[in-house]
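Researcher: Here's my situation. A collaborator sent me these components and asked whether they could plausibly form a single complex. I don't have experimental data yet, so a predicted model of the whole assembly would be a useful starting point for our discussion.
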Amino acid sequence: KAGVTQTPRYLIKTRGQQVTLSCSPISGHRSVSWYQQTPGQGLQFLFEYFSETQRNKGNFPGRFSGRQFSNSRSEMNVSTLELGDSALYLCASSLGSGGLYNEQFFGPGTRLTVL
Amino acid sequence: AQSVTQLDSHVSVSEGTPVLLRCNYSSSYSPSLFWYVQHPNKGLQLLLKYTSAATLVKGINGFEAEFKKSETSFHLTKPSAHMSDAAEYFCVVGAGTALIFGKGTTLSVSS
């Protein structure tokens, strides 16, 4: 079974631009979560989608948004990029049904650099 | 609110010696706890998880962790370190459908 895939793997943008990252979950998984990893703040939860609905949201500004499609693929968007948005963005998928703590499987991440 | 504190940012061991990575948690109810490992340029991988079935949890690659409610701890151990264990380790607590990560412990293994 194929794992979680994220595209692109690397991105370079300039301040003020916007960016869209994509995540394809493991087949059959309906929950997709996004995390930001930086050296200073570590790994922080952004949001989680289940069946096209945002079910949980972390403490990030409104410039960070996401969506999920009917095939469970997810995108996250960051508008008006700031230097501090440079990070590794990780996507994780899980079955999402039943108990709250289904194992989350992580993708390799998208490395975003903002210049 | 749930949180985890990893007590050591960096741990160095020699190959063949025991590994101990320390984690304390804070939770207002019975927590779900995890340890994840991240090797350089690789994704996060689940080592083990605690969900109240047993206090001693065995994971992959010889790792195990013991849940101690009285000490609010969930330390990760391995009897004998291998060079391939060198990586970043994260203690994690479940919070609804989100995971709350500790700051991480870098494990170095020398020959």
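Model: Some features of this prediction you could bring to your collaborator: The longest strand of chain A covers residues 42-50. Chain A has a mean pLDDT of 92.
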